[in-house]
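Per-residue structure
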Amino acid sequence: MTSGKGRVRVGCCGFRSSRETYYELLDSVEVQHTFYQPPQVSTLRRWREEAPADFEFALKSWQLVTHLSSSPTYRRLKRPLTEEQREGAGFFRPTEAVQNAWEVTRECARALKARAVLFQCPASFKPTVENVENLRRFFKGVERGRLVFAWEPRGGWPRELVGELCDELKLWHAVDPFSERSTTPGKCYFRLHGRRGWRYKYEEGELEELSTMLPKRATSYVFFNNVEMRDDARRFREIVESAE
């Protein structure tokens, strides 16, 4: 949708309902399947074909790019990793496993005609010299085309360093805006997890406050990831539309 605050894409982290019902409520989604076990490209192409023409997909990068194979998130893999994948996966390292995982992610983005890819890092990915160097090498080396790259760092990354890296590597700082201020306020990628946990429902005043955080004349992404995500996203969309 467009408003005085520019293009605002509102959705959920995952469909959380039938896709048909979801398409009637919202104009965007952040696909989670691609993080755990990317679906077949043919499946993603079908999703794109069945969605409205103006519907936008964002997606999470496959966990082999960001997470070490010791992460509990790998329990949701449908196919076991090879020994090479287990040793080389994660932390943006210059390995064949990471590179191949990025190629899979990029193919998923192409199938969905996605415009944004989220790289969600675990808390174990700390701001060490090695990790910073690998992060730089990865984002300077991958082919991104016109994709927006959103980075969600955890693990105690200094705000100044995050801002420096986002500026240098052309990344959007992904944050929950009620927990942390973005270092890229003109390029907002918000993920709302609930102010007091997943079971939280946002109040009307909070959603109105959220709308004031968005930049004018720019595209923003706002994805809800709480128990009431569909209803909160719908109500937020109405607030943004009322400002048109």
The chain has one domain: 2-242. The domain at 2-242 is CATH 3.20.20.410 (TIM Barrel). The beta strands are 2-3, 6-13, 28-31, 56-60, 116-120, 148-152, 172-175, 189-192, 220-224.
